[in-house]
Design brief:
The complex is a heterodimer of chains A (775) and B (330).
Chain A: E1 2-4, H1 5-8, H2 17-26, E2 30-34, E3 44-54, E4 62-67, E5 72-77, E6 87-91, E7 96-97, E8 100-101, E9 105-107, E10 110-112, E11 115-116, H3 119-122, H4 144-148, E12 154-158, H5 169-180, E13 193-197, H6 198-201, E14 203-206, E15 212-221, H7 230-239, H8 246-258, E16 262-266, E17 274-279, E18 285-287, E19 293-295, E20 301-304, E21 309-312, E22 316-317, E23 330-337, H9 339-348, H10 354-360, H11 365-382, E24 386-389, E25 392-395, E26 403-407, H12 408-415, H13 421-430, E27 434-438, E28 442-446, H14 457-468, H15 489-503, E29 507-508, E30 514-515, H16 517-520, E31 542-543, H17 548-557, E32 567-576, E33 581-591, H18 594-612, E34 616-622, E35 625-630, E36 633-640, H19 643-648, E37 655-662, H20 663-669, E38 684-693, H21 698-707, E39 713-722, E40 731-740, H22 748-766, E41 769-774
Parallel strand pairs in A: 13-24, 14-17, 29-32
Antiparallel strand pairs in A: 1-12, 2-12, 3-4, 3-6, 4-5, 6-11, 7-8, 9-10, 15-23, 15-24, 15-25, 16-23, 17-20, 18-19, 20-21, 21-22, 26-28, 27-28, 30-31, 32-33, 33-37, 34-35, 35-36, 36-37, 38-40, 38-41, 39-40
Helix pairs in contact in A: 7-8, 8-11, 9-10, 15-18, 15-20
Chain B: H1 3-15, H2 20-31, H3 36-42, H4 49-83, H5 101-115, E1 119-120, E2 126-128, H6 129-132, E3 152-154, E4 157-159, H7 165-173, E5 178-187, E6 198-208, H8 213-228, E7 234-241, E8 244-253, E9 270-279, H9 281-286, E10 295-302, H10 303-311, H11 318-321, H12 324-327
Helix pairs in contact in B: 1-4, 2-4, 5-8, 5-10
The chains are: A alpha+beta (775), B alpha+beta (330).
Chain lengths: 775, 330
C-alpha cells in the first residue's frame, strides 16, 4: 500500500519521514521510502552569486563567492551558465546529492565549500546542461524545499494479511501516532441533510444475510459530475489510483482513507429504486465496468435491482448502473460482504481489485456507517450534492465486542522480558484497547472495533512486544532439558556420500522434482506416476519416478564442458510414486571410453560402500544392467546406457553409466567397522595373469580359486583386465593379486606350491594359460 | 710436483667444477690409478725409511684432504642443483568434485543446529492439505494461502509449500521437550530471478514448558551469525504468519555495504533471511498438546536465498540449471 506523506499529515504530525519509515518497519509495517533518490532538499538552500573569478589552474572551472544568507561561501563550479546576481540552489556541506555527501573539497588547489546544483543533480529533471537558475525573488538562505515545494514522499508498505485495518490512511495514521508519540486527528464528518428521506427514495433487501452482514444506501441528489478538486486528484494519484470523476473519486478516496470500499450507482438506472443483495442465479450474466460480460454462478454475490444484477458485490460495478456525466442522483453503497465470498468471486473471475483486497481481509461493521457518512459529506462538498436525510441501513449494526484477559506474569514467561503491567496497559491503551477490568494479577481488555485480528492473549503479547520494541527484548538461549539427540541416518549417510563422491571427482547436481512425462519415468518399471493438476508447464507436470531422465538432461547440457574427459555427476533426491517417496542417490558417469566409464562408476561405489562398512556386489540381471546388492539386500540398480537413449537425450559422449541407490537401504546396512589385528608375521604378495576366454566371468575365476580352500591364502582380487594387442580376439587377460598370510613366517616353497595348484586348476577347468608370474 | 703445489692446484681445480661430472674428472685426476698421488704412493718403496715415513704421511693426508674436498663440493653442487627447481611448474592436477552450494549451506546449518541440541527430522513432499495448511492454522480460503500459491495433486493433496507440516507430524509422535530442524524441498507456483517453483527450506521447532520470545531471538542470532559471520548484525521485525503468534522476520545487516544501504539491500542496509515466531496455540491444540503447559517457537529459512546472499549469486535459477561451470566454483 502506498502512503503519501502529505496525505498522512492530515491525520498525524510527521517530523521525519526516515524516522517514521524505520519505526513503522520495526513495529510491523514493513515499508520503503519511494522517490528517495530525490532527497528532501535537506541542507540545500537558495544562494546568490556575488562574484565569479577564473580558476588559475583549470580552464573549465570558475571560482564563485556565493551568499547563502548568514555567510558567503567560496564555491568552485564547472557549469558554463552561471552569472553574477543569479539565485541558485546551493548544497551545503553535509547535504546528500544522489549517493554522494557534499564535503569541503579542494578542486585543483582551490577550496570549495559546497556545490551549486543542476536540476538533474537535485532529481527534479534530467536537465544537466547547467546550474538551475531560481526565481530572482527567492529569498537568499531559504531552504530550497520552501521555494520549490518538497517532492512528494511516499512510503510503500507491505501490509500483512492480518492487518486489514492498515489498508487505509487512518489505519496507518493510528500506527504512526503510537510509534512516534503523536496525537491522532480524525476527520470531522458534518453533513447538511435535505428534508427528503433516503428511505422514501430507496429500499434495500438483503436476501443472503450469510454473505452480507450490513448494507447501507445513501442517496445524493442533484450532483454535478465533473473532475474532482486538485487536492483529491493529487492524493489519489500519489496512492496509485487514477482520478476519474468527482463521484468515483470520492468513493476511492474514502476507501483509501478509511479502508471501506464503496460504490456509487446512477439512481435512475436502478429499476424499482430497490436494491436486492442476493446470490447470482446459475449462468446469470453481468457486464462489469471494464466492459467484459461475466457469467456467474450460485456462489457469486450480486447487487441487483428488481430486474437484474447491477454489480458484483465487493468486486466491481456493473456497466448498466454506471455513473456518467449525465448522472443526477447517486446511490452510494457502503456494505459488509463476506470475505471468502468476495475472494472466491474475485479469484474465479480474475478480478482482484483494491476493493476486493479489502473485503477479503474482513471489515468491521461499524466502519460501514462511518464510511457512508464520510463519502456523503464529501459528495455534498465537491459535487454540490443534496444528501437525503438518513440512510437505508439493513443488517447487523455492530460486531460483538471482544474481551481478552491478560495475566501479567505471563508477559515475562512468554516474552522473556519483564515488562511492567503499567507499561503493558499504557501500550495497549495507546493502541485503542480499553481496560474493562483490572486486578493485581490480570487485566481484561476490550479490543478496538477495527482490530479484527486480535482475539487471544498471545495477540496482546504481540501488541505489547512490537510497540515495546523487539530490539529491547534480550537474546537468550533456551533453558530446559535437552531432548535425546536422534540421529537421522539417511542424512548422515548422505553427508558422507557427498564427501566421498566429491573427493572422487563427482559434481553434485540438484534438479527439479518435476519434469515431463517421458523424463519422469525413463526406467519404466510401471506407470504409477504422480501428476500435478496445475503445473506451470507440461515440462513440469510429473513427479520424477527415477533420476535417470534428469541425469541425461544435465549430461546433455554439459556436452561441451571438458570434452573428452570422463565427467561424473551425482544427486541425492527423492523419487515419487502415488504411495511412496524414496530418497535416492543417483550417479551418472559419461565419457568416451566405455571400459573406463564402467570402472570409475563401479570403483566409486566400491569406495563409498567400503567406507560405510557395507559389502557391495553387482549382480547381473539383464543385458548391460545389474542389481546393486548391499550386504544381502537389493539396494539399487547399475546400468550401462545404450546409444539409442543417449541419442534421444542428445548426450554426445560415447558411453555412460548410471546407478541409483535407495538411501534408506544403504543407511540401514551401514556398520561401524571393527578393528582387525594387524598380522604379526610378514605376508607374501603374488600376482598372476591368466589368459582366458572372453566368456569366462571374473566372478567364476574367483569362485574356482576360492574352492581350493587354501589355508594360507588371505585374499585374492582381480586388479587388471586386458584385451587387444598380443591376444586373440576372443581372449582376455585377467591379473589377480594374491595375498598370503599365516600365523607364522611363510616359506617361499609353500606359497609357490599354492600358486602352482591354482595355475593347474585354471588350466584344467578353464583352459587358462598363465602369462608369467612374479613373486 | 710437490705436495704443496698439488694441493694448490687441486683447490684451484675444485673451485672450477660446476657439476658432478666435473667432480668425477677431478676424482680420476687426483685419486685415479693414473694420478700423481697414486703413482707417488706406489713408488714410496723406493725411498728410504725416514723419507718414506714423512712422504707417506704427507701423501695420505693430501689424499684425505682431496676426498673431503670432493665430498664437500659434491654436497655444495647438489644443493645448487636442487635450488634450480622451478616452483612455478604446475602441481599434479587432481580431478575433484564439488558439493552443490545449497547442500554446503545446509551442512553448515546442520552443524549449528547440532550445537544447540536440535535433531534432524524429515517428512513427505507430497503432502495433505491438512498437514500443509489446516493443522497450521490456515483453513481453506485463508487469505494467507494467497502468498503460497500451491501445486495441487488433487483436492486434498499438495506439493508442500513449506517444511512446516513436519512440525505437525513430529509433534504427533513426540512429546516435549522437542528440538528439531527439518531440511527439504518445497514448492510454490513462482518462476523468476528470485523465485523458482522448487526451493529449499530449513524449518526449526522447539517446544518445551519454558520457552520465550527472547530464546527465539537468541537461537536465531546464533544461526544468522553462524552462517554469515560474527560481525554481522541481526534485527527482528514483527510480521505475520498464521501458525505463529507473535510472528517475526529476521534481517542481517547487508554484507556488501555493511549496513549503510546499497543497491543489493535496496538501500535499507538489511537483508531479510527468515520468518519465525512463537507457535500458535491452535497449532499446539491441533496436535493434542496442552497449550497452557507448553510453549514453543518455530522458524523457517529459505536456504536458496541464504545461499544466494552468502555466495553473491543473483539469479536463483542457476541453482537448478546444473551448469558444471557454475557448480565447479563452489
Amino acid at each position: 500500500m502506498r502512503i503519501p506523506i502529505s496525505w498522512l499529515k492530515e491525520y498525524v504530525e510527521v517530523k521525519s519521514v526516515k524516522e517514521l519509515s524505520d519505526k513503522l518497519t520495526m513495529s510491523g509495517t514493513e515499508n520503503e521510502i519511494l522517490h528517495a533518490e530525490k532527497g528532501d532538499f535537506e541542507k540545500i538552500v537558495v544562494g546568490e552569486i556575488l562574484e565569479i573569478k577564473k580558476h588559475p589552474n583549470a580552464d573549465k572551472l570558475q571560482i564563485t563567492k556565493t551568499s547563502v544568507g548568514k555567510e558567503t561561501l567560496q564555491i568552485v563550479c564547472g557549469a558554463p551558465n552561471i552569472k553574477v546576481g543569479q539565485k541558485v540552489p546551493v548544497a551545503l556541506v553535509g547535504a546528500q546529492i544522489g549517493e554522494f555527501e557534499i564535503r569541503e573539497a579542494e578542486l585543483r588547489g582551490i577550496k570549495s565549500h559546497g556545490m551549486l546544483c543542476s536540476e538533474s543533480e537535485l532529481g527534479i529533471s534530467d536537465d544537466h546542461s547547467g546550474i538551475m537558475v531560481l526565481d530572482p525573488r527567492a529569498k537568499v538562505g531559504e531552504s530550497l524545499g520552501n521555494v520549490l515545494g518538497l517532492p512528494e514522499k511516499i512510503l510503500d508498505a507491505e501490509i500483512t494479511p492480518n492487518r486489514g485495518d492498515c489498508l487505509s490512511m487512518i489505519g496507518i495514521a493510528r500506527e504512526t501516532a503510537v510509534v512516534t508519540n503523536q496525537k491522532l486527528k480524525l476527520p470531522q464528518i458534518k453533513i447538511q441533510e435535505a428534508k427528503e428521506k433516503a428511505s422514501d427514495f430507496l429500499s434495500v433487501e438483503i436476501k443472503d444475510k450469510d454473505l452480507c452482514r450490513r448494507y447501507i444506501g445513501r442517496v445524493i441528489k442533484n450532483v454535478k459530475v465533473g473532475p474532482s478538486p486538485q487536492w483529491m486528484q493529487d492524493s489519489l494519484s500519489a496512492s496509485g489510483v487514477r482520478p476519474i470523476s468527482n463521484i468515483v473519486d470520492v468513493t476511492n478516496y474514502v476507501m483509501l482513507e478509511m479502508g471501506q470500499p464503496l460504490h456509487a450507482f446512477d439512481a435512475e438506472k436502478i429499476s424499482g429504486r430497490k436494491i436486492i443483495v442476493r446470490r447470482a442465479k446459475k449462468g446469470e450474466k453481468i457486464e462489469t465496468l471494464d466492459g467484459t460480460v461475466r457469467t456467474l454462478n450460485l456462489k457469486d454475490l450480486v447487487i441487483a435491482d428488481d430486474k437484474k444484477a447491477i454489480a458484483l458485490a465487493g468486486v466491481m460495478g456493473g456497466a448498466n448502473s454506471e455513473v456518467t456525466d449525465r448522472t443526477k442522483t447517486v446511490v452510494l453503497e457502503s456494505a459488509n460482504f463476506h470475505p471468502t465470498s468476495v475472494r472466491k468471486t474475485a479469484l474465479s473471475l480474475a478480478l482482484r481489485s483494491e476493493s476486493s483486497a479489502r473485503f477479503e481481509k474482513g471489515l468491521p461493521l461499524q466502519l460501514t456507517e462511518e464510511a457512508a457518512d464520510r463519502a456523503a459529506a464529501l459528495l455534498a462538498e465537491i459535487a454540490d450534492g443534496e444528501v437525503l436525510a438518513g440512510k437505508v441501513d439493513m443488517g447487523e449494526k455492530k460486531d460483538k465486542e471482544t474481551k481478552i484477559t491478560i495475566m501479567f506474569n505471563r508477559i515475562e514467561t512468554f516474552l522473556g522480558e519483564n515488562i511492567s503491567p503499567s507499561r503493558a496497559i499504557e501500550i495497549l491503551t495507546r493502541l485503542g484497547f480499553q481496560v474493562s477490568d483490572k486486578t493485581k494479577d490480570r487485566a481484561v481488555f476490550i479490543v478496538p472495533y477495527w482490530r479484527l485480528d486480535v482475539s487471544i492473549e498471545e495477540d496482546l503479547f504481540e501488541e505489547i512486544a512490537r510497540i515495546y520494541g523487539y530490539e529491547n527484548i534480550p537474546s537468550t538461549l533456551p533453558e530446559g532439558v535437552l531432548p535425546i539427540y536422534e540421529v537421522d541416518k539417511k542424512n548422515e549417510v548422505s553427508e558422507k556420500t557427498r564427501d566421498i563422491f566429491t573427493a572422487l571427482g563427482f559434481y553434485e547436481v540438484l534438479s527439479y522434482s518435476f519434469t515431463n512425462k517421458e523424463k519422469a519415468n525413463v526406467l519404466k518399471k510401471d506407470n504409477d506416476l504422480v501428476k500435478i493438476a496445475n503445473p506451470l508447464s507440461q515440462e513440469q507436470e510429473f513427479m520424477r519416478k527415477d533420476l535417470l531422465g534428469s541425469s541425461l538432461e544435465i549430461a546433455a547440457k554439459n556436452n561441451d564442458y571438458k570434452r573428452g574427459t570422463i565427467k561424473k555427476i551425482f544427486e541425492i533426491s527423492s523419487v515419487y510414486t502415488s504411495k511412496t517417496e524414496l530418497m535416492k542417490l543417483s550417479g551418472f558417469v559419461f565419457g568416451e571410453e566405455a571400459e573406463e566409464v564402467f570402472r570409475q562408476s563401479k570403483g566409486s561405489l566400491e569406495v563409498l560402500f567400503n567406507t560405510l562398512g557395507v559389502a557391495i556386489k553387482l549382480k547381473d540381471c539383464k543385458k548391460n544392467e545389474a542389481v546393486i546388492i548391499a550386504d544381502k539386500n537389493k539396494a539399487g540398480s547399475f546400468m550401462i546406457l545404450d546409444s539409442t537413449i543417449m541419442e534421444k537425450f542428445k548426450v554426445k559422449s560415447k558411453s555412460a553409466c548410471f546407478f541409483e541407490i535407495d538411501m534408506k537401504i544403504l543407511a540401514k546396512a551401514v556398520k561401524v567397522k571393527k578393528y582387525q589385528n594387524i598380522p604379526k608375521f610378514p605376508g607374501s604378495e603374488r600376482d598372476l595373469t591368466f589368459i582366458v576366454d572372453e566368456s569366462l566371468r571374473v566372478e567364476d575365476l574367483d569362485h574356482a580359486i576360492g574352492s581350493l580352500k587354501s589355508s594360507i591364502l588371505e585374499s585374492k582380487e582381480a586388479v587388471a583386465i586386458y584385451r587387444g594387442k598380443g591376444l586373440l580376439p576372443d581372449k582376455k587377460s585377467v591379473s589377480i593379486r594374491f595375498i598370503y598370510q599365516a600365523d607364522r613366517t611363510l616359506t617361499d616353497q609353500e606359497v609357490d606350491d599354492d600358486q602352482t595348484e591354482i595355475i593347474k586348476l585354471i588350466k584344467d577347468k578353464f583352459g587358462g594359460e598363465v602369462r608369467g608370474g612374479k613373486g | 710436483m710437490n705436495i704443496q703445489d698439488m694441493k694448490k692446484q687441486f683447490v684451484k681445480d675444485l673451485g672450477q667444477t660446476g657439476s658432478q661430472k666435473d667432480l668425477e674428472v677431478l676424482r680420476v685426476k687426483y685419486l685415479g690409478k693414473k694420478s700423481e698421488i697414486y703413482s707417488s704412493l706406489r713408488s714410496l718403496g723406493q725411498l728410504d725409511h725416514e723419507e718414506r715415513k714423512v712422504m707417506g704421511a704427507a701423501l695420505n693426508q693430501l689424499r684425505g684432504e682431496i676426498e673431503a674436498g670432493l665430498k664437500s663440493q659434491e654436497y655444495e653442487l647438489a644443493q645448487k642443483e636442487q635450488t634450480v627447481l622451478d616452483f612455478s611448474e604446475p602441481g599434479k592436477k587432481f580431478e575433484i568434485g564439488h558439493k552443490h552450494p545449497i547442500t554446503q549451506v545446509y551442512e553448515e546449518l546442520f552443524e549449528i543446529a547440532k550445537t544447540l541440541g536440535f535433531s534432524i527430522a524429515d517428512g513427505p513432499e507430497v503432502e495433505s492439505d491438512w498437514y500443509n495448511f489446516e493443522a497450521l492454522n490456515m483453513p481453506k480460503d485463508h487469505p494467507a494461502r494467497d502468498t503460497q500459491d500451491s501445486f495441487y495433486i488433487d483436492e486434498s493433496t499438495v506439493l508442500r509449500t513449506q517444511t512446516s507440516p513436519v512440525q505437525i507430524r513430529y509433534m504427533e509422535k513426540h512429546k516435549p521437550p522437542i528440538r528439531i530442524v527439518v531440511p527439504g524441498r518445497t514448492y510454490r507456483r513462482d518462476n523468476d530471478m528470485t523465485h523458482t517453483p522448487m526451493f529449499h527450506q530449513l524449518e526449526g521447532l522447539l517446544v518445551d514448558d519454558r520457552v520465550t520470545l527472547a530464546d527465539l531471538k537468541g537461537v536465531l542470532t546464533v544461526f544468522a551469525k553462524g552462517i554469515f559471520g560474527q560481525d554481522r548484525k541481526v534485527r527482528f521485525r514483527p510480521h505475520h504468519f498464521p501458525f505463529t503468534e507473535p510472528s517475526i522476520e529476521a534481517d542481517v545487516s547487508c554484507g556488501l555495504c555493511g549496513g549503510k544501504g546499497c543497491r543489493s539491500c535496496k538501500y535499507s542496509g538489511w537483508l531479510e533471511i527468515l520468518g519465525a515466531g512463537m507457535v500458535h496455540p491452535n497449532v499446539l491444540k491441533n496436535v493434542g498438546l496442552d497449550f497452557k503447559k507448553y510453549q514453543g517457537f518455530a522458524f523457517g529459512m529459505g536456504v536458496d536465498r541464504i545461499t544466494m546472499l552468502k555466495f553473491d549469486i543473483d539469479d536463483t535459477r542457476m541453482f537448478f540449471d546444473n551448469d558444471l561451470r557454475f557448480l565447479e566454483q563452489f
